[in-house]
Amino acid sequence: MKFWKKTAIGILFVCIAFVSVYVGINLKTWNMEQVQKYIGEEVLSQSILGFVTEAVRNFEEDLSEADKGDGSLSDTAASTETSANVENYLNLPDIREMEAGSILEMETLRDGMAELLFYSEELSPGVQQRIVGTSYQENDNISLDELRYLRILHVGFDGKTHIGELLVNQSIAEDVLEIMAELYKDGYAIEKMVLVDNYGADDEQSMEDNNTSAFNYREIAGSSKLSRHSLGLAIDINPLYNPCVKNGGTSISPVNAGDYADRSQPFAHKIDENDLCYQMFTEHGFTWGGHWNSLKDYQHFEK
Question: SS3 for 266?
Fold first, then answer.
């Protein structure tokens, strides 16, 4: 072979090697148009250009597959972690099956789910079974169809979110839901909120345990007159700290609330005219037992 041909072939291979190395270094940032522009038909033959073009295409495909996850240990771990997070979320039916009084871990809720946990519904067979013969007695004044079962969230004295329940008249169900949602949003503390049936419909026991409740078909204590609770039109909030005080303080209900009968004293959970609970209920048209003259029922709101 003549010397000039050998020289030409050598130069050609040098060019190929140089271009291959350059392209290899820049494959990550080059696209097909840039490769073709750089190499050009004047430098390499169509066969070499095709070879380099195919190499770039294969490299881009590899990058695409890598973005999707190559099944490596790290990808598998990330996928497992994501699945675990999804599994840790509670679904709405699961929460609705939880007993009232249960603590709800807020990190287990998806965004916006808390708002769905304030709702009113007609009395289910299960709720009816709980109350008939206990807080509900057969009568001519109110039927089961006129009552509504409310599920809400409330902040307990422990600072955690608790699931609460109330029975109220259908006419005030939406008012009570709105009030309770606002109290929860503001972090207003209510220690307990379960049906009075958990105490055998014994109002005194429920109050002594500082349980917030509403419906209970009963007479006003010491009289033959039906309480507004009998119609589901009254609710008692944190009753231990906001007792019913009669006869100038000689009669206090619940009986263990003596430390909270003097309303001039400062203490936590006291309902007065500066309290958010008072403000919310009165804004919704409720009257407060703390304004009564014959007695003072500081826990009591009715409509």
Answer: coil
- Contact criterion met (CB below 8 Å) for 235 and 301: yes
C-beta pairs of 130-135 under 8 Å, 24+ apart in sequence: 130/195, 130/197, 131/167, 131/195, 131/197, 131/215, 134/197, 134/200, 134/201, 135/167, 135/195, 135/196, 135/197, 135/201, 135/215, 135/216, 135/217
Q: Kindly report, residue by residue over 185-224, the tens digit of the pLDDT.
A: 999 999 999 999 999 999 999 999 999 999 999 987 767 7
Strand ranges, E, within 170-281: 234-236, 244-246, 251-253
Pair of tokens at residue 81? 């972690």
> What is this structure's pTM?
0.71
DSSP β-ladder status, 287-288 and 300-302: antiparallel
Closest listed residue to residue 128, CA positions, set 102, 148, 111, 110: 148
User: Does residue 239 have a cis bond before it (omega within 30 degrees)?
Assistant: no
> Helices 173-185 and 276-283, interaxial angle, to 10°?
150
Alpha-helical regions (H) of 120-255: 125-131, 173-185, 203-208
Element (H, E) at 186: none
Q: How many CB atoms lie within 10 A of CB 116?
A: 12
Residue 44's identity, in one-letter code, is L
pLDDT digits (tens, 9 = 90+) for 32-41: 444 444 444 4
